[in-house]
Hints:
By secondary structure, this protein is mainly alpha-helical. It has helices at 6-37, 41-51, 63-70, 74-86, 108-135, 140-148; strands at residues 90-94, 102-106. The chain has a two-stranded antiparallel ribbon. The two termini are 37 Å apart.
Amino acid sequence: MTATDPALTALSQGWCALSLLHGKIEAHIERALQTGHDLSVREYSLLDVLSRQHHGTGGHLQMKQVADAVVLSQSATTRLVTRLEDRGLLTRYLCDTDRRGIYTDVTEAGLALLAEARPTNDTALRAALDEAAADHPELEPLVRTVEGLKATV
């Protein structure tokens, strides 16, 4: 394959379309969450991921799992956890069975903010998808794919 190979060009264009859709969605949701709840998309995502944990075997996520779920490095995730902990939205404590392990849980205030912000997130996501499909017809197939996906995290 050469740099001008049609298969590579198509692949690159597909990646650009996916990147464009992601950027439009994230920017739309970011504005809505910041305006309505003083939350970033990453903060909302972290609260959402951690709120789905449960106590008991396999219930808590390791920091690497959390970082993967919110698509950040472990160090960036730790900084994000610290910011939300400082706001009283998260709490950390040592694992009972492994004193090296640290768990992070969403506080009642964090759960309340998440519940308040969830409709904003969902509405902004729907609007961003609709707007992207309307403004960029070439994104329509990607929008439909996103609508059909089910998260595994």
